[in-house]
Design goal:
With 311 residues, the chain is an alpha+beta fold. It has helices spanning 76-88, 110-126, 132-142, 146-151, 186-199, 215-223, 226-232, 238-244, 248-257, 279-291, and strands at 10-27, 33-53, 56-62, 93-100, 154-158, 163-166, 173-179, 234-235, 262-265, 272-276, 295-301, 307-308. The radius of gyration is 19 Å and the shape is globular. It binds cytidine-5'-monophosphate. Residues 31-33, 35, 143-145, 160-161, 186-187, 190 line the site of cytidine-5'-monophosphate.
């Protein structure tokens, strides 16, 4: 996609995300759900370095718990590199080094960011120069959130979450994240939602066939107003995630008692994102939650999507 002269190694980074709004529609025949998502990319990045090699391999280091990251061919970065090679007819491989900073199986799209950064880095390393539209199509084959890790910023995702349209946003939002010491499987959380909907099909409206993002969310993002956005944070996966991990409820409560405007489970969780009014509030909340011995990270959003890093 981009031609960069870096014979020995190419370095790219891509951000994690918070879903500030996530509405889940009907379960489709392919096992996926129609969704309507407002994504915000946040300042936690996956760092990917790729080196020329005959085959494909990956090593992983970083600041988050790494035991759940596969380092065989099932690793999404290797799958991304192989897919790009297959699609472009490139015959070599790549050695991939990932520096992970986005919580693993945390609902923040860390694996998706690895895939997006790997696509970009391998494209530059190999000189394959795939057009952006085709990169986004490969991204979508790799996972529903991968196109957003590629584009970053603020965007609306429909379909499986992979059909993106940009959303107008201004200013910077201040978030405080609480990272759990366990992961949640995305398919398990979606299945829990389906089970809940089946159990209560008499009492609740059927899931919207084509869900959409509430206009109040778009307005809050456009205004850059955290108070307004706090009123509109919404996630259909929150209840099933809490059902699977009830301990998360007390964390949500603790954040809201300590000055957060609102808290929400990010994506399928278990990471909890607290929105704060400003930097001072974020710092105060960070201190309070750290004092409760929680694993806390402060981030801002929106930030840019996958990018090459100049050496
Ligand atoms: O696309 P991705 O690999 O991230 O999806 C992981 C799983 O999450 C899917 O296999 C599916 O069970 C669930 N999912 C879904 N509907 C979506 C996105 C993901 O049911 N829109």
């Amino acid at each position: 996609m981009t031609s960069v002269a870096a014979p020995g190694m190419v370095h790219a980074k891509a951000p994690g995300k918070i879903n500030v709004f996530l509405k889940v529609g009907a379960l489709l025949g392919d096992g996926y759900h129609d969704v309507a998502i407002a994504y915000q990319a946040v300042s936690l990045y996956e760092e990917v370095r790729v080196y020329p090699a005959d085959d494909f391999s990956v090593v992983v280091s970083g600041t988050v718990e790494l035991s759940r990251v596969p380092v065989d061919g099932s690793n999404i970065a290797i799958r991304a590199a192989r897919l790009l090679a297959a699609r472009t007819g490139y015959r070599g491989g790549a050695h991939i080094e990932i520096g992970k900073h986005v919580p693993v199986t945390g609902g923040m799209g860390g694996g998706s960011a690895d895939a997006a950064a790997t696509l970009l880095a391998c494209d530059a390393l190999w000189g394959t120069e795939l057009p952006r539209e085709e990169m986004l199509s490969l991204a979508s084959e790799l996972g529903s959130d991968v196109p957003f890790a590629f584009t970053g910023g603020t965007a609306i995702g429909t379909g499986r979450g992979d059909q993106l349209s940009p959303a107008l946003a201004q200013g910077q939002f201040q978030w405080v994240l609480v990272v759990a010491d366990f992961g949640l499987s995305t398919p398990a959380v979606y299945s829990e939602l389906d089970r809940h909907r089946d159990r209560h099909s008499q009492d609740i409206f059927p899931a919207q066939a084509q869900p959409f993002v509430d206009t109040n969310v778009l307005q809050a993002l456009r205004a850059g107003d955290p108070h307004q956005l706090a009123e509109t944070l919404y996630n259909d996966l929150q209840a099933p995630a809490l059902h699977l991990e009830p301990s998360l409820a007390s964390v949500l409560e603790l954040g809201e008692q300590n000055g957060a405007l609102a808290g929400i489970i990010s994506g399928s969780g278990p990471t909890i994102a607290f929105l704060t009014a400003d930097l001072d509030n974020a710092l105060e909340l960070q201190i309070a939650l750290s004092a409760a011995r929680l694993n806390v990270v402060r981030v801002t959003g929106p930030v840019h999507g996958a990018r090459l890093v100049n050496q």
